[in-house]
């Protein structure tokens, strides 16, 4: 029986997909405002926290990206607020990489209560890759490791 | 010669439109991140700063709104980042009230350099009016002062 | 043999001391500044996070305190910075309640690396109890539950 | 009549002392917390804002310092909170450079209401000069311009 190396390799890649979990924590006191609930700007920060966690769990921590001289600025961010989060309430952020093409990608987010029965907010950020001079970078040829991780996790549904 | 009270009154209102100016300040050190530029979440906060300034100049400070038991939560926020703002760089935020219907409104924003030749970012927030129990409020009947100010400044172009 | 209820009860209280653990997390990207390290103001926020965690673990979450109409403002805060914390670096905050007298208390903090071999920073906050009108409150008579928890955990050394 | 150049020059320097004004602005909405007042961590940030303003007015903006490869980290920070600042309330920060020795310096701060009749908070930060490798720097020989400005403004009382 003949086994094609390439299929093995692709199977191995599939097996190598780490399980990735939603990002969870509680809202801090200093994140609330005088309305008594978390200030809306902080959700944009929670998106980032979950993005960092997602990439870390995927085996490509931001530090590793930045150590290669690559930065990942935010091109746009948006959030729709559905239900307020109060002080010390636990939330989970569910990020999903979408529309990666080597040059740009988007991440969508849902912020939910711990058992995913209340949607607090949902949103999206768009990003590109740039070098230290803020010039856009195509990752496929120059940074195959980065390309590979994003490519494998496009559309990946994180576990709650 | 007959003068209609109503027309006088409407003319008076037009004359009463305060001149409103763009919101200006410099970026703070603590607003930067390790990329060396202002962290993207802060633009959402700058939108709010300009919103507060806009309403204050329009004669309806947030405190006056909140003193009546009315809060103005954010339903959604979005920002597109065009050019990074660095530490201590001056910027102007140009807000514009849009689509006010007594119940909800939107504000669009441009963040520009002092002489308005560089667009740093642009975005939009959507808001509604709620009471202390977070129930939506129609302002037209119950809060005519609030209604009136928003209504007069819909589409108003602030001065730079 | 006679057993005094009171001594039993006091013994039971001692046994009821929950184990409390240091507060741990990683530094967020947005907590860094253009120097490339965590901005010094955030350590003051980390103190608060650890304070909230300490009280929660002690069985007296802030929400429970505030639900009784009691607030715990900060009278003073101080921090000495020893070694910078970088993005995504894990740290532990070790809080200790000191000098509680029913009216006021202090908490000292050490921020260390995960295995407690590097001291990143140390500091102190002082607090009092006030009612919703910001008037100072003596907890011993009016809020014995609050008094009791603080009293039991004065000098308590949290586990790493 | 003979005029010594050196005395002229020294006189000129004295005359060249810029007038420096207290730093003023209003508290932002997002700076408040659920207690309804400005979160205590933000005062530490206001200290920094006033420090930046002080040096800028003294003719030595932070960017100029950092452009020479010199950073000015915070060694310690402390704040005593006297009276809460509410949303949109104007405050002035009065910084004063103290104990400069070429290597280190301290700045004390008072945060007051606009006409300086209410003391909201007072505090102190300590700083040193370091190079990009975080090694301490003596400014007197290597960075005389930096040395000179700090030296001239030690003890200087800013105008309200």
What does the model show?
The structure is a homotetramer of 160-residue chains. Chain A is of the alpha+beta class. Chain A is built from five helices and five strands. The first copy, chain A, has a five-stranded antiparallel beta sheet with strand order 1-3-4-5-2, covered by helices on one side. The longest helix of chain A has 17 residues, at 41-57. Mean pLDDT of chain A is 92; it is low at 1-12. The interface between A and B is medium-sized, with 19 and 19 residues. β2 of chain C pairs antiparallel with β2 of chain D, so a sheet runs across the interface.
| Largest interchain contact | A-B, 19 and 19 residues
The largest sheet of chain A, given as strand count, sense and whether it forms a barrel, is: 5 strands, antiparallel
| Strand order across the largest sheet of chain A | 1-3-4-5-2
Work out the strand percent of chain A. 25-35%
Structural class of chain A: alpha+beta
Radius of gyration of chain A, whole Å: 18 Å
Q: Count of helical segments of chain A?
A: 5
Q: Judging from the principal axes of the Cα atoms, what is the shape of chain A?
A: globular
List the helices and strands and how they pair.
The structure is a homotetramer.
Chain A lengths: L4 H12 L6 E4 L14 H17 L4 H6 L6 E8 L8 E9 L5 E9 L6 E10 L10 H4 L1 H10 L7
Antiparallel strand pairs in A: 1-3, 2-5, 3-4, 4-5
